[in-house]
Write a structure and sequence with these properties.
Structural class: alpha/beta
Number of helices: 5
Strand content: 15-25%
Length: 137
């Protein structure tokens, strides 16, 4: 289901000129970290179903990716969660720049915020595209 959610995100993101690459949930976590780090992505989306028995794996993936590529923004998307992003960050003990979303709209908003902050930092007069590597947790 996580991979299907990533595929849906990729489809919707393409409508907003966001290029995506989806890594299979069958790929071992260590290889997904390497893939995301080496992909040249501007942001990584880690997907998890909020009703999953354990959210440790997606949180662990986001933490490992943050250690390997601290410059790479991470969006942890917990599809269907009813908690606010702030509550999710607190309950999952997420540190650093990782953002939390619980819907397609929220994930796209996070991508837009990252795009805007990079555009402002690079050159306010020049629009910057974004590449998002979406991966399931």
């Amino acid at each position: 289901m996580d991979e299907a959610a990533c595929a849906l995100f990729a489809l919707v993101a393409a409508e907003q000129d966001v290029e995506t690459v989806v890594a299979s949930c069958d790929t071992p976590s260590a290889l997904r970290v390497e893939f995301a780090s080496a992909s040249g992505a501007d942001v990584v989306l880690v997907s998890a179903i909020s009703s999953a028995p354990s959210l440790r794996r997606p949180r662990y993936f986001a933490e490992r990716l943050g250690q390997k590529s601290p410059h790479l923004p991470v969006i942890l998307c917990l599809w269907g969660s009813t908690q606010t992003a702030a509550d999710l960050r607190e309950s999952l003990a997420i540190e650093g720049d990782a953002r939390v979303a619980h819907s397609l709209e929220g994930a796209l908003q996070c991508v837009a915020e990252i795009r805007a902050s990079r555009t402002a930092a690079a050159d306010p007069a020049r629009p910057v595209g974004s590449t998002s590597a979406a991966t399931s947790g």
